[in-house]
Amino acid sequence: MAIYIFFWRIQNTMTMISVQEAQKIILDLVTSLQETETIDLDQATGRILAETVTGDLDFPYWDNSAMDGYGVRFEDVNEGNTNQPISLKIVAEIPAGIKPEISIQSGEACRIFTGAMLPDGVDTIIMQENTQQQGKQVLVLSSPKYCGEFVRKKGNFYQAGEILLSAGTKINEPEMAILATAQCSKVTVYRRPRVAILSTGNELITTTQKLEPGQIIDSNQYALKAFILKNGGIPISLGIVEDEPNLIKEKIIEAINCADFVLSTGGVSVGDYDYIDQILEELGGKISISSVAMKPGKPLTVAKFDNGCVYFGLPGNPVSALVGCWRLVKLALYKLSGIKGDYKPQLITVKSNHDLSSQGKRETYIWGQLKLVNGEYLFILAKGQQNSANLINLGFTNALAILPIGVTKIKQGETVTVLMLCN
Q1: What is the rounded CA–CA span in Å between residue 366 and residue 329?
Q2: In a domain, 342, yes or no
Q3: Which of 59, 98, 338, 381 is most buried by its number of CB atoms within 10 A?
Q4: In 3D, which of 347, 333, 340 has the Cα closest to residue 399?
Q5: pLDDT in tens, 339-385
Q6: Looking at the predicted structure, is the pLDDT value of residue 11 above 70?
């Protein structure tokens, strides 16, 4: 078996490609989901709209007050000042939430509160601070700057029938508020991507098993599950599979038949127990990527099957697996989920608070934190070794500094391109 796999690898070794090439190939492989479901609005956070939403109501729904104060007719107050205040008769008090039944005539005013509907006759609001109440009269101490001051006109923000939100929009807090305002109690969204996860390796054990010499606790299952959930997918945990070709083959068959994407860790390098690429081809997978010029994360196999499932064979080292997900799989998940727009990494240029180094042979990703210091963002290097097996100092990471091929050093205080990991 080992000799056969050795010759298979020689015949099937693909050229190591750049990160940018890998990104383009992966995105070209992914087809956005078309299946939809209709759900209650209160379950829609983080989901992707599958239909364009229009509203039946103007917004604001009616003319209303933007301030606590007094509703007046502009023609009554446009010449008042502190030395010659204008006195108006208070004929009503209008709180928010009621329809006024009164019409304000010349020489009259109404006490009104923020958000309250304007009665007939009122075209301007005098804010409370520019008035003085004297019994049933109010003195206007300062004239408004224009007719309609502090009035929110019906339909000024949105008119019924216009597009509120387009298909492909991710529903976050602002979108939830917009949909609620438009009384969209149910929304049609794309179904969530299903992503299978499996770990390969004789050395791996679960969190509940006793650790014996030479064994490793499988942290990748949990890290990748968190990654999938954070990015809107449904993780399907298929557990650990030993480095035995038939067992791996069975598990991969299960994975590609139950998921849109498969994320496996381990088995994609050039060791005697790395069988993934061979098995993928035996099962009809078309391998497009087998090696990417990035560090960590060089061993990366990407294949597509006839049923549309895209397979990502990630390295077994925890940091390598996550860096591959953050840089490449995340964009693929965005496209799969139905999000519209440019599928590009979130990059920002900031100053580095530390010296950063690389061998310069591969695009290098260095983990750490973006922190706001004295009004500007700095990249703060994670303490400890930058080693792909060292997941301990990966804690609190929210950014990856990127050193391009050919760049071996960035000095403290110099600028560096950083991949932001927030959604």
Answers
A1: 18
A2: no
A3: 338
A4: 347
A5: 998 999 999 999 999 999 999 999 999 999 999 999 999 999 999 99
A6: no
Task: Give the pLDDT score at 14.
Answer: 63
Same domain, 243 and 378: no
The residue with tokens 């006490």 is 111
Tell me, yes or no, whether 46 and 169 share the same domain: yes
* pLDDT at residue 360 in the model: 96
Looking at 288, 318, 337, which one is the last position of a domain? 337
CA-wise closest residue to 318 among 217, 243, 247: 217
Token output for 107:
């020489």
The CATH code of the domain that includes 255 is: 3.40.980.10
Would you state the pLDDT for residue 272?
A: 61
Q: In this structure, what are the phi and psi dihedrals at residue 344, rounded to the nearest 5 degrees?
A: -130, 150
Cα–Cα distance, 408 to 418 (Å, whole number): 16
Report residue 194 as tokens: 């299903």
Q: Considering its fold, how many domains does the chain have in total?
A: 4
Helices (H), 119-244: 173-181, 220-230
Structural domain containing residue 76: 64-152
Whether residue 316 sits in one domain with residue 284: yes
- How do strand 261-265 and strand 310-314 relate by DSSP bridges? parallel
